[in-house]
Each structure stands twice: as structure tokens, then as C-alpha cells.
Design brief:
By secondary structure, the chain is α+β, with helices and mostly antiparallel strands. The chain is 31% helix and 24% strand. Helix 11 (328-338) runs parallel beside helix 13 (362-373). It binds adenosine monophosphate and iron/sulfur cluster.
Length: 472
């Protein structure tokens, strides 16, 4: 039921910089480092102190930007965005940042996440005369800010964010200021760094490494940061809640070289793999992982179990992530084009195959078949996260409930469906152990797609139409 009510998704990457002569160029590099977070579109807006310039397009960062168009992006501050989109929103009009020009001042916005009360806000804005041109949540935020009228921009932003419920990391650029905000639960990752004397902001710290920036700190849940010629000023627009950083960021999305909330992604995946080996051991000859996101967990599993890690599968580098293809048939072909078994390694062996997650089951089913065709005598599938049984309302495209394999079948049935000799998942406690310091409110994670316990109120769309919210 809830799945039908699922809103539009955005699981994207953000980068911003203030006070650097090479703002556009460094933003281009930052977006390049964040390319894995979205491959369907990208954009950069810069400011030279007097006006904003924009360039954006559909496709990969490298194909959208070149020396010529980067040279037109003048100024010392910039925001940039890489976009993941579902089929229904893959048009150019939804590519961010969105730029709004007005007589007094202009602003450009980009965000990562999903507003859960978007339907109610959209209806309210339309009833008050706003004409929304995109299906993007970012535009809703912009209209809410503009309704703040003659309030100082900082106050108008606070007022607007006070009305928005959900998961968002958000950057806004004007001619002379950069605003940065994170939702009160800190569902999405967002870090601050410094390069030379300039502040930088990014969804993942791997972007800092590429531009030579030093990590400074995380943006705090409920925090609104203003960066301008006077430096960085931090205020709160909402009381911070127990942090609920998306655990799928660690499991799958983020790059292994990123640190999220102070925890290195590769190290956390290794711990998940170790924990999985403790919880679900099996006799086997080799451990292998599905490249790239499961390699760290496979190394952890091998270390803990004492079964040697081997390169049983290789990935064709010249193809994107399977999920990025928005429909089922291209996703299935995507898996076939992407992975090949290493026959010399798996032939005649009992293989433990580690993957980071099962969503629809397409990947696991295909890989078990590949390994068996290559001569594996047994394939034991071990998943380094718990079963995903519930949809995500916070911008992660985990599909409708009825397509989630674990919401429809028992583990034994799933094993049979994917053709595995055995199947086991990491427990929710095991996941938490790898990521959470129990004494800190800052290291909490969202695990709602595993447990069904959503950290925020959820606003089903039909209910929203009547102007009432409801918990999930
Ligand atoms: P599936 O083939 O539908 O079971 O999807 C599982 C595969 O997709 C795993 O190998 C993951 O690496 C990857 N994956 C898991 N969750 C997501 C997500 N929300 N978006 C994109 N890819 C994902
Ligand atoms: Fe992440 Fe799952 Fe929470 Fe969505 S429901 S934010 S995918 S942990």
C-alpha cells in the first residue's frame, strides 16, 4: 500500500564552494568525484558577486562540461549538482541547480533528498497562485522561500525549511552568499571542507580529496549555514533530532574512500562483512564479492571466516551502475553486460558470494547463474545488509514494496528464486554495530527500509490531498 504512495525520487550529489578563483573548475572536479550518485544530469551555477551564470545538461559530468562552457561560468562561488532520476522525472527541466532570477536578487538552489509532504505543499502553493514548472522538490522550496517576501533571505529560508518535512541536503547561492542546510534528522550526508581560504561543501568527502580540500566537519541536522565575505556563520532552523543518516549510504551508495559522519565507508563495509561471517558462516573454498560496492564486505567476510578472498567476478568498467537504468528490461541487460565470472577461480569450487543488498533480486539471480555456468559447485549468497522489506520515502529509489523480493518471500523462498544453495542476510543489530556509537545522538542511522520504522512522519499522498498528514 505505502509503495503506491511513494513520491518522486532524488538521490543526488551536491557540491558548493565560496571564495575561490577557480570556483567553476573545482565544482566540475567535485561533481566528477560524485558522479556515482547520479548519472542522468548535472549542472553548475556560479556567481561573480553581481550576477549568476548557469550551465547544465543531461548526461555525465564529462559530457556536459568542457573548457569553453566552464570559462563562461564566471565568479568565485558556485554550486553544483549531479542527478539521479527515475523515469518519470528524467527531463531536462528537472536538472539542477534551478535558477530563479528576479529584479532584487537571483538565487540558485540544488538539493539531494525527498520532501515527504510535497503533495500538500504543492497544492497549497498552487492554490495561492504559484505556477510550478517542474516536478522537482527543489522548486517547491524556492517558492516557499520567495513567499517570505521582504524577510531577510536567511529568515525566509528558515521559515520555508520549517514547512518542509523529509530528507534533504540543500545549497542555495545568491550573488554574494552561500546557504547550506540539512534536514533535522540528518538523513542525507553533507560535509564541510576548506581549500586554500575557501569553504567547500559536498555530499561525500571523496569530492574534497579530488579538489585538495581538508575536511572540516559535518553539517549538523537542523543547521543552516551562511557563508559570505564575513566567513561562516552557523544557525539552527530546527531542533536537531537523533541523527538518522541513511544506512544505505554506507551499504551501497557512497564511495569507499568517503568518510560519512566520521566513519570511513570501506571500513564500515568491512565490519559488516566480518559481522556477517560471524552470523552466517558456511563451509566453502573461496569468498568473492560483487564489484564494486561489495568488495569491502567480501574482504571482511574472508578475513573473519578464514576462507580466502578471490576475484571471482570482474566488472566491465565502461558501463554504469545497473540501477541507474530506470526500467526493468534495461536493468536486466545491464547486469549481463556488467559482470563476468572468472572461470579459472570458481570452476569446481564452493563459492561464498557476497553482495551488499537484494532489492528485486535481479542481480543475485543473474550472478548465481553466472557462477554456476562457470563451474562453481555450490554458491552460497551472503548479503551484507538486512532484507529490504519497505519502501524508502527519503529519496532512495528502492522500488515499490511489491517488487521488493524480501517483502514477498521468506529467506528460503528467496534462496530458491535466486538459485542459491543457501542465503543469509546481516542482522539489523549487526548493521548497527558497524555504524552506531550507542552513546552519541550524532551517529544514529535510518534503517526504515529494513525495519519499517520511519524516523519522520510520512505523508501519504491521498491523505495529503485532504490536507491531513499521517504516520507510516
Ligand atoms: P537487485 O538486482 O534489484 O536485487 O538490486 C540489488 C543490487 O543493486 C545490489 O547489487 C546493489 O549493489 C544495488 N543496489 C541496492 N540498492 C540500490 C539502490 N537503492 N539504488 C541503486 N542500486 C542499488
Ligand atoms: Fe536510507 Fe532505507 Fe532510510 Fe531510505 S529508508 S533513507 S534507503 S535507510
Amino acid at each position: 500500500m505505502l509503495a503506491e504512495l511513494k513520491g518522486l525520487n532524488e538521490e543526488c550529489g551536491l557540491f558548493a564552494i565560496f571564495g575561490h578563483e577557480r570556483a567553476a573548475e573545482l565544482t566540475f572536479y567535485g561533481l566528477h568525484a560524485l558522479q556515482h550518485r547520479g548519472q542522468q544530469g548535472a549542472g553548475i551555477v556560479t556567481s561573480n558577486g553581481e550576477q549568476l551564470s548557469i550551465h547544465k545538461g543531461v548526461g555525465l559530468v564529462n559530457s556536459i562540461f568542457n573548457e569553453q562552457n566552464l570559462a563562461t561560468l564566471k565568479g568565485t562561488s558556485a554550486i553544483g549538482h549531479v542527478r539521479y532520476a527515475t523515469e518519470e522525472q528524467s527531463g531536462f527541466e528537472n536538472v539542477q541547480p534551478l535558477l530563479f532570477r528576479s529584479q532584487i536578487s537571483s538565487m540558485a538552489l540544488a538539493h539531494n533528498g525527498e520532501i515527504v509532504n510535497d503533495f500538500a505543499l504543492r497544492s497549497q502553493l498552487e492554490a495561492q497562485g504559484s505556477i510550478l514548472q517542474t516536478t522537482s522538490d527543489t522548486e517547491i522550496i524556492a517558492h516557499l522561500i520567495k513567499r517570505g517576501g521582504y524577510l531577510a533571505l536567511e529568515e525566509a529560508i528558515k521559515q520555508a525549511l520549517g514547512m518542509v518535512k523529509g530528507a534533504y541536503a540543500f545549497v542555495l547561492l545568491t550573488e554574494d552568499q552561500l546557504f547550506v542546510a540539512l534536514d533535522p534528522y540528518g538523513l542525507r550526508p553533507l560535509s564541510i571542507g576548506k581549500v586554500d581560504d575557501a569553504y567547500v561543501v559536498a555530499s561525500e568527502t571523496c569530492a574534497f580529496d579530488l579538489v585538495g580540500a581538508e575536511y572540516v566537519r559535518e553539517v549538523k541536522p537542523g543547521e543552516l549555514i551562511v557563508i559570505d565575505k564575513n566567513g561562516l556563520n552557523s544557525t539552527m532552523f530546527a531542533s536537531p533530532m537523533q541523527r538518522a543518516l541513511c544506512s544505505m549510504e554506507y551499504v551501497y551508495f557512497s564511495r569507499p574512500d568517503s568518510d560519512l559522519n566520521g566513519i570511513n565507508v570501506h571500513a564500515s563495509r568491512k565490519l559488516m562483512g566480518k559481522q556477517l561471517a560471524k552470523e552466517a558462516s558456511i563451509e566453502a573454498d573461496v569468498v568473492t564479492g560483487v564489484p564494486d560496492s561489495s568488495i569491502s564486505a567480501a574482504i571482511g567476510y574472508a578475513e573473519e571466516s578464514g576462507i580466502p578472498y578471490e576475484l571471482g567476478l570482474i566488472k566491465n568498467r565502461y558501463i554504469g551502475r545497473t540501477f541507474i537504468e530506470p526500467n526493468q528490461s534495461s536493468r536486466e541487460e545491464g547486469v549481463k553486460m556488467k559482470l563476468s565470472p572468472v572461470r579459472g577461480i570458481v570452476n569446481g569450487k564452493r563459492v561464498v558470494m557476497i553482495d551488499d543488498s537484494i532489492v528485486r533480486g535481479t542481480t543475485s539471480m543473474r550472478i548465481v547463474r553466472l557462477l554456476k555456468e562457470a563451474g562453481a559447485t555450490e554458491v552460497h549468497v551472503r548479503i551484507a545488509s538486512p532484507p529490504i522489506k519497505n519502501p524508502c520515502f527519503y529519496g532512495v529509489d528502492t522500488t515499490a514494496s511489491e517488487d521488493l523480493l524480501a517483502s514477498q518471500y521468506s529467506i528460503e523462498e528467496m534462496a530458491e528464486k535466486i538459485g542459491a544453495d543457501s542465503l543469509a542476510f546481516l542482522s539489523v543489530e549487526g548493521l548497527e554495530n558497524a555504524l552506531v556509537d550507542e552513546d552519541s545522538i550524532e551517529t544514529g542511522i535510518c534503517k526504515a527500509c529494513f525495519t519499517g520504522r520511519y524516523p519522520t512522519e510520512i505523508y501519504p499522498r491521498e491523505v495529503n490531498a485532504n490536507g491531513k498528514g499521517a504516520g507510516a
